[in-house]
Every structure is written in structure tokens, then in C-alpha cells.
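User: Can you write out an input/output pair for a complex, sequences first and structure second?

Assistant: Here is one pair. Inputs:
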Amino acid sequence: MSHTYHYPRPGLTVDVVVFGLDEDDLKLLLVRGGETPQRRWSLPGGFVRIDESLEAAARRELVDETGVSDIFIEQLYTFGRVDRDSRERVVTVSYYGLVNLSEHTVTAAESKDAAWFAIDDMPTLAFDHNEIVEVATARLRGKVRYQPIGFELLPQKFTLTQLQRMYEKILERSLDKRNFRKKALATGLLIELDEVEQDVAHRAARLYRFDERTYRQLAAEGTYFEV
Amino acid sequence: MSHTYHYPRPGLTVDVVVFGLDEDDLKLLLVRGGETPQRRWSLPGGFVRIDESLEAAARRELVDETGVSDIFIEQLYTFGRVDRDSRERVVTVSYYGLVNLSEHTVTAAESKDAAWFAIDDMPTLAFDHNEIVEVATARLRGKVRYQPIGFELLPQKFTLTQLQRMYEKILERSLDKRNFRKKALATGLLIELDEVEQDVAHRAARLYRFDERTYRQLAAEGTYFEV
């Protein structure tokens, strides 16, 4: 690798796929405005500054464009197709993040709109951002099989129905209730609380929380949860 | 993202971690020379050209610096710590590759040395390349648990002992022979051939090959092989 490299350099950006879960849907955080071609919706993101790490750039752009901060993010994949931006050569390092929607409000900034879209009702995005979302969704689905999931997506206290709905939304298929509960409880990840849901019309269900220590351990080691 | 971005841009490189397997060891392909600081060994790699994709750049650098071509490679992770190269800001997209050593010869080029090193007897590498190798090794270990592995690392026809040795080298622990064979055969991945090893001093062992269709299918779906 040459010390002084004077040839033209690709632009380097970061883009962030943020998944959010609410009572109804698995959602995705999108922005619109600025100089994005055809005023299409796109992932929050922007150029990496010369003096900041990739993850710092991803977090900075996310806060600047959407107001969302302090969430779990992880690097996903780097997209570098030569023609992915028609204006000039740009390589983007993508990240994906997970949030519980009840705990994060979105504020548009930098003269952009910011909004949540249900994952199964998304517009056509700018650049190759639809492809980035597909890769992120596949990663999330892979994670479900081999790692505990939900710590970031669910509220601190949740019902088994909420847990099952999360799996169903990610896997895009319905699961057998009895079988799911049996397997979920057998993981040793769930702590049954001495509390039930508040303010619900139906019969209040038991609340659970994750055993954080077991969760982190299984996340590091990997586990197999065949749902 | 702004159309014309006139601020300083990080340099963008690719680096390739190539694992090779021979009868004795899991090995790693390294190069030395050029302008690498302190004449340290490093991963094959270099700057991404403005008109080539990331994977094309990785393959080009690999051939130029080592003569190794047409191998399986996959993107690993992008490393962008601000101080990872003391000379200037450089972000690198890393790839990892797998080869069977008997089928690839290495030829140094571009006034660099190129050589294979046993993974458990590696020198201190330039930049953050030791960290990149660690991430690649962890990825390889993760793959062993959830995906079939060996198609690229083993010769076309192999013995169960060779297969077991590959797992042992990757996992860095010895496995029970009887148990391993039972599990390996139960995967449905192995086709027993009507041939035995040639030119060996010990009793010639049965040869196997992978069922490529089952292999590709399990690679796509994921499987759980607890060894």
C-alpha cells in the first residue's frame, strides 16, 4: 500500500438500517430530503469525516437526521458497486440498529423528513438502499436462529405474546403458540415477574424480562432456537 | 448526502485473509515488502480503484501480490479506526478466502515476499492486521457451527480423518473420533466413494466427497453441527 496515494478516491459514507418494534409491526426508520435524487426516501446516513470512526459517523448521522441516539448498532456490510450512486463513486459502510419504538421519538432535522415505515409496506428507496434493507432483514432472520434476540426490540417487561409476535414479524410467518412458549421458556432466558399487564381490555397476561447475564452469554456463544 | 463533497476523504483499501489447509496445519497467506512500515508481514491488499468493485479490488490485489486466483472469498468486516495507519487515514474492507493448499501455488510479485504461515505461529503483522485475522478466525469458527464447511479447504476427495483434522484445526481442540464420524455421516453431506487413499504408509482409508447440492442448500439455510 503506497504512502501517498494521489489517485482519485471513492467517497465513503455510512448508512444505518434501524429496525423498530411496536405493538403492530416491525418498522424501519427512513429519511427524505436534502440532495437525495428524485426526493426518494433513503436510510439515514452521510459522509465519514476524516477524524471519526465508522461507528461514530453512523451514530452522528443518525442523531443529526432523526434524533435517535444511544441505541444498539452493529456493522452489517459494505456496499461498493461502481454505479450504486449515479453522481459519483461512493462506497457505503452499512450498520443496522434495533430499538423499542415506545422508548424512542423521532425528530426530523437538517431539513429532512424522518418517519417509521412498516417493513412490509416500504417505498422504493434511493440508491441501493432497498438492497441494504434486504441484507439487514436477512441478518436479523439469521440472528433469530442462532442468538437470543429481543433485548433491544422489546420493552423491559413483556408478555409471551409480545415475544412471539416479535419472532413472527421477523420470520414473516405465524408460529404455534403452545410450542413457541414451551421452547421460549426452556431457553432459561426468561424471568417470570410477579406482575401482569396494566390497562388492557383482555385478561391481563403475565410479564417477563430477560435474564441479562444468560442473554449476553448466549449472545456471545451462540445458541440454536428452532422456532 | 451532498453531491459534491470537497472535504478530505479517507483512503479506501481492501485486505484479504486467505486460510489454507494442508496435511499439517491451518495456514494464512501473508506478504512482506513494498512500503509497509518496519518491513512487517501483512495481509495481501491495497487501494480500491475508482472504477472497480470492492471484491474485484480484493481479487486483483491477491493475484498481483501472491499469484493466488479463482478462490472462494467473502466480505468479512470493514475496519476504520482513525489511527489504524499512522501515515494517513485509511479505511479497509476486509475479505476472507479459503483454499486447499495442494491446489494453489504462491508466487510473490510486485517486489514483495509471499508465504504461508501456520495460524498458531504467526508473526506480529503491520497495522491492525492481527485484529483482522482474529475476526476472520472467529468468523470461520462460527461458520463451523452453523454451516457446512470444507468444500473449499479440503481436496475434492478426502478421508474422514482429514475432515476431522480440519475441524480440530479450526476449533483448536481435539474431537472424539467415533462421535465425530457418527455426526459427520449423519449430516447427509458426505458421499462415500468406491476408492481408498493412494500411496500411504498406514492402512489406506476410505475416500469421501461432498454432495455439492446438499452442501449448497445447507450453506444457504444454515444447519447446526455440534461437534
